[in-house]
Design brief:
By secondary structure, this protein is α+β, with helices and mostly antiparallel strands. The chain contains 25 helices and 26 strands. Strand 18 and strand 19 form a beta hairpin. It folds into four domains: about 300 residues, no CATH class; about 90 residues, Calcium-transporting ATPase, cytoplasmic transduction domain A; about 130 residues, HAD superfamily/HAD-like (Rossmann fold); about 120 residues, 3-Layer(aba) Sandwich (Calcium-transporting ATPase, cytoplasmic domain N). The strands form six sheets. A seven-stranded mixed beta sheet has the order 14-26-25-24-15-22-23, with helices on both faces. The chain has a six-stranded antiparallel beta sheet with strand order 6-5-7-13-8-11, with no helix packed on it. The chain is elongated, with a radius of gyration of 33 Å. Helix 10 runs antiparallel to helix 11 and helix 18 crosses helix 23. Helix content is about 50%, strand content about 15%.
Length: about 700
């Protein structure tokens, strides 16, 4: 079973003809009007406005004829006028009930169409065949008012939903419509849809980058705030990647296109936000189950109430009709259906504004319950951009030889430490090259072969084992006591030197850890680095639980251990060696600047590379789940209270006369309930992390 993304009603996927394919995903709808709202919201709004322009003036005339203007032809005039409202303004409800019959299902239109038709039909028979019902009494005002009120409520709901989806619309608007294609010595403006990979584009100052590209000429400051949430401009130069939709603030750039269409970062962000807003959270399962049986149950309750009061309560047939109409109109499965999607839409949009991507609703619900966090060090708590601080020779090779060997071995490495060593070699203007062979031993280091066939080894003391002398061990210990990561460089199995690197903490790491601990969340630092460096970082951040020299499987084992103790565990990391733990954790939070593997493994992605955003994510998730629970409570409570009232619970107190206004009040309440749910969800747009 699928849910209609517009009204939230259950739709049987098997044999469902009303579908729409969008962004590589198939959506199912209970009616053509819901599909129209999904595919062409502007057109649906125009149709709604036209219906309202007709419905309300005609309804007002009917009300005047009912209560103020009395002529012998009133009923006939109202029959004509009410028919206009019923079958022109209310035609969407009949189209919906036809769709429901075709697919052997029931939707909200079923209740409205049956209820209003019962009121209009009874009144029409009384008007045309007065001898059939001697008690008389027509309800044209009731049927017309119900249609007008429900259309008004739908229109208001569409407006509030549009506000809720503003974040997604803003992301879509970031995509430029045209690009400046470089052709020889000339420039040609082309639609963005015609841009292909490897095209060369010109981006002038003040313009948005058309699509994901690499700078091949020029230097500029790029504002990425709309995509990543990072407020400060980032300097980009030749060889740097730029994201489509970001703003080139100063210099003129020539870029080479690397991704287009649905493969771009911006397209992926939009897809993640949309998918999250239409995904499920476990807390909604009860609501979904109830919704699938809701419409038939409401019709049965309406019939049972009307028949019971007619035969056992001694009321007239006209009052029994009004009871039936009131029950059908007051019931609102829409509020149940949109309780979760409305909150998820606003929350995922708000998160995207802050550079946080929530992949699905389940990740968000889990995030609200997290009480233990396992966090990596390099690139997560630290900037992930270590710098070479010490180069020590242990043999006949001098320091520059040691650096050269290490840089050649690290040329094929994607690890931040490897990049730092290569960067230092480039800075020293060394002639380095890609090695003939390259091997990575997780948790230990790397081996490679230079062009002369010599084996180069770069790694920790465990990689070299007993070959590390006491003198070398003392030098390593001294460097590590200073908080530096130290690597041993070996050629043909013999240590020839040491390279020490230092990585600084991110400015918000301490703030983030403090916030987690203040909320009672247990924090574990689990890193592949050595004990001295790990403990030094732990002391600086106030983390008492520190595990060092952890291999990828050991990080995962720690996650499992915490889960077995009853903890809901989040893993925060950015590297390849974090992927197993990210996948195993109840919630994987991937730092956006990390590897593609980490991004795929994480249920939540932090685009800004900010550790504090992990705390913001947990706080936003708690607020969102609170809104979802409030919405579901309102939707359940609304029906639990008002359906019995519509079925006659107040007759002993107010007599049957209450049904003179109750059907119209029911229509107002039904429309109000959906607007309330969406409006309550919109309050999430005010969220600000403290």
């Amino acid at each position: 079973m699928a849910n209609d993304p517009i009204c939230g009603m259950y739709v049987e996927e098997k044999g469902a003809a009303i579908t729409s394919d969008k962004d590589g995903r198939k959506y199912y709808f209970c009616s053509a009007s819901c599909k129209l709202q999904f595919d062409k919201p502007e057109l649906e709004m125009r149709i709604l406005r036209r219906a309202l322009i007709v419905a309300w003036p005609v309804t007002i005339i009917i009300l005047l004829l009912t209560y103020l203007i009395k002529t012998e032809y009133n009923d006939y005039i109202m029959l004509v006028l009410a028919s206009v409202v019923q079958f022109y303004a209310g035609q969407r409800f009949y189209a919906g009930i036809i769709d429901a019959v075709k697919h052997r299902s029931a939707n909200m239109d079923t209740l409205i169409a049956i209820g209003t038709t019962a009121a209009w039909g009874y009144s029409a028979i009384v008007t045309l065949f007065p001898l059939l019902f001697l008690s008389g009494g027509v309800f044209f005002d009731t049927s017309a008012m119900i249609v007008s009120l429900i259309l008004t409520g739908t229109y208001m709901q569409r407006i509030t939903e549009a506000k809720a989806s503003n974040a997604v619309s803003a992301l879509v608007a970031l995509q430029p419509k045209t690009a400046h294609l470089v052709e020889g010595n000339g420039i040609k403006d082309i639609p963005i849809e015609q841009v292909s990979e490897t095209d060369i584009l010109l981006v002038r100052p003040g313009e948005r980058i058309p699509t994901d590209s690499v700078i091949i000429e020029g230097e500029s400051s790029i504002y990425e705030s709309a995509v990543t949430g990072e407020s400060m401009p980032i300097t980009k130069k030749e060889g740097d990647s730029v994201i489509g939709g970001t703003v080139n603030s100063s210099g003129s750039l020539k870029v080479k296109v690397v991704r287009v269409g649905g493969n771009t970062v911006l397209a992926q962000i939009i897809k993640i936000v949309k998918d999250a807003s239409s995904s499920k959270v476990p807390v909604q399962r009860l609501a979904d189950k109830i919704s699938s049986y809701f419409v038939p149950a409401v019709v049965a309750i309406g019939i049972a109430a009307a028949v019971s009061w007619y035969f056992m309560g001694g009321i007239g047939l006209n009052s029994a009709v009004l009871i039936f109409v009131s029950v059908l109109i007051v019931a609102c499965p829409c509020a149940l259906g949109i309780a979760t999607p409305a909150a998820l839409l606003v929350a995922s949009g708000k998160a995207a504004e802050n550079g946080i991507l929530i992949k699905n609703g389940e990740s968000l619900q889990v995030a609200s319950k997290v009480n233990a966090i396992v966090v990596d060090k390099t690139g997560t708590l630290t900037k992930g951009k270590p710098e070479v601080t010490d180069i020590i020779s242990l043999s006949e090779y001098d320091a520059m030889n040691v650096l050269e060997f290490a840089a050649i071995a690290e040329m094929s490495s994607e690890h931040p430490i490897g990049k730092a060593i290569v960067g230092r070699a480039v800075q020293e203007k060394m002639n380095i090259y890609i090695p003939n062979k390259f091997g990575y031993r997780q948790g230990f280091g790397i081996t490679a072969f230079d062009k002369n066939g010599s084996e180069i080894t770069v790694g920790n003391r465990e990689l070299f084992g007993a070959d590390v002398s006491d003198d070398v061990e003392q030098q390593i210990s001294k460097l590590e006591s200073e908080g530096k990561t130290t690597l041993i460089i070996g050629v043909e199995g013999s240590a020839i030197g040491l390279i020490a690197l230092s990585d600084t903490l991110k400015k918000d790491s301490k703030k983030a850890i403090g916030a987690f601990q203040k909320d009672g969340i247990e924090v574990w630092l689990v890193t592949g680095d050595n004990a001295r460096v790990a403990e030094s970082v732990g002391r600086q951040l106030g983390i008492a639980n520190v595990i060092s020299q952890a291999k990828p499987e050991q990080k995962m084992e720690k996650v499992v251990e915490l889960q077995k103790s009853g903890k809901i565990v989040a893993m925060i990391g950015d590297g390849i060696n974090d992927a197993p733990a990210l996948t195993k954790a109840d919630l994987g939070i991937a730092i956006g600047a990390g590897t593609e593997v980490a991004l795929q493994a994480g249920g939540i992605i932090l685009m800004k590379n900010s550790m504090y955003d992990a705390y913001v994510t947990l706080e936003l998730s708690r607020r969102t789940m609170a809104k979802i629970r409030q919405n579901l409570f309102w939707a359940f409570g609304y029906n639990a209270v008002l359906i019995p009232i519509a079925a006659g619970a107040l007759i002993p107190v107010f007599t049957i006369g209450i049904y003179g206004v109750l059907p119209m009040l029911a229509a107002f309440a039904m429309a109000f309930s959906s607007v309330t749910v969406v409006s309550n969800s919109l309050l999430l747009s005010r969220f600000k992390a403290h």
